Hints:
The structure holds two protein chains of two kinds.
Chain A (H helix, E strand, L loop, with lengths): L18 E6 L2 E6 L4 H7 L6 E2 L6 E2 L12 E4 L2 E5 L10 E3 L1 E2 L3
Parallel strand pairs in A: 1-7, 3-8
Antiparallel strand pairs in A: 1-2, 3-4, 5-6, 5-7
Chain B lengths: L1 E8 L3 H12 L4 E4 L28 H15 L2 E3 L2 E7 L3 E6 L7 E12 L3 E3 L12 E3 H9 L8 E5 L3 H12 L3 E7 L8 H9 L4 E3 L1 E8 L5 E8 L12 E4 L2 E4 L3 E3 L2 H5 L4 E4 L4 E4 L12 E3 L9 H18 L5 H18 L2 H21 L8
Parallel strand pairs in B: 1-2, 1-6, 2-3, 6-19, 8-15, 9-10, 9-15, 10-11
Antiparallel strand pairs in B: 4-5, 5-6, 7-16, 12-13, 13-14, 17-18
Amino acid sequence: MSDRVDQHCILDVKKTGRTVKITVDDKEIEAYEGEPILSALLASGIKINRYTVKKHEPRGLFCGIGQCSDCSMVVDGKANVRTCITPVKEGMVIKTQDGLK
Amino acid sequence: MLERDVVVVGAGPAGLAASIEAAKAGADVLLVDLNMKPGGQLFKQIHKFFGSSAHRSGTRGFEIGKMLLAEAEEAGVEIWLQSTVIGAFPGNLIAIEKGTDGGNKEVITMRAKKLIIATGASENVVRFKGWTTPGVMGAGAAQTMINVNHVKPGKKIVMVGSGNVGLIVSYQLMQAGCDVVALVEAAPKIGGYAVHAAKIRRAGVPIYTQHTVVEAVPGEDGTVCKVVIAKVDDHFQPIPGTEQEIEADTVTIGAGLKPATDMVKLEKCQLTFNGPFGGFIPLHNDRMETSRAGVYVAGDATGVEEANTALEEGRIAGISAVESLGLIGESEAEKKRIEIWGRLEALRMGPFGERRQIEKNNILAEYEEKIGTAVEME
Lengths: 101, 378
């Protein structure tokens, strides 16, 4: 998890949540239970969350607070899940959202 | 049907302060927020606040957030997180969607005797070629990642905009271990406070004034690998031949904020356009009541300012709501409001604040002229 903020002069960044495993596009990654799905993905270097319907362009984190929907993915079979405001649960199966498929 | 004396929408500084005031006066208060945690932007603000001791200067934003949450809990404020207001109907009814995107959601209809809208603001964007490429994001989005989620949005960052958000977030990205490789500003000089700019300069970040981003270039993996900037002319147009490439994986845009008015539109509150406050805002009086009777507003949703003004406006909205419920007397409410407006005037002084005081007065005058007395929704 190299892209975590692991040292900070002001904030306590020590993780307290349980480490769990989730699956992203058939690959297993580690995540902290309860953190936004998007955080776990960024920590594992995953920056593309979906492709647009018409032009098949990639999209990723843009607003980070549930307003823009660019980080939407398919989570446990449900599409259009805003990963920036949806917490990680153990064993979640996440897929890059490709258009309406 | 569920009913509450006061429903507050948005759990940032304005919404928390409004909730605390209302609950302390004995009202049943429900505070709803769509996020996973309450606090709004306060928990992202790890810098020390300015101002007087009355406004907790020298205290970091997230510490103020913790104090407010504790106060809200003590006052008995009920908080629903991951909850979004999706409808408004006559008879003071609102529909609240509760639950996460992936899980089961339910829609709850609620009668809110009084409603306080404190929905905050959203970030402006700058549109350049490739602005939708993964790796391009709001400065606030990057700040959320480092300071709340403790994860880096990228390694090498180009910050666009040198207002206080651009300056402060640049510094905080460095504190989190990211490399800020350029600060790009279209105007001829830095927009934010000199004290913040000095920190960026001392850290050795190259500052490009009179420059703009012309393209975020994706690499083979589809995410940003390179950023092209260029000098701009007096009309902010890129000058051909002045382009230069910067190796970076992230572009963060700090180009100001605009009030989040979806909820006030849903409530059919009358709006006015105000440039210095960031766009369309709801007209309101000195009780923070909108054109709709029993519907109040506070914080950035009434015009983009900062956390302390949001807090104070929230207090006024909370006090006015419980006054109209008959929980506190008119003279007590008026006394408190006068005190708070005095503190707000102190916050709206100086080179950055004076303009906001003038605009605030204009808005209050426009309310008197166009609305006078708030009316019920038909």
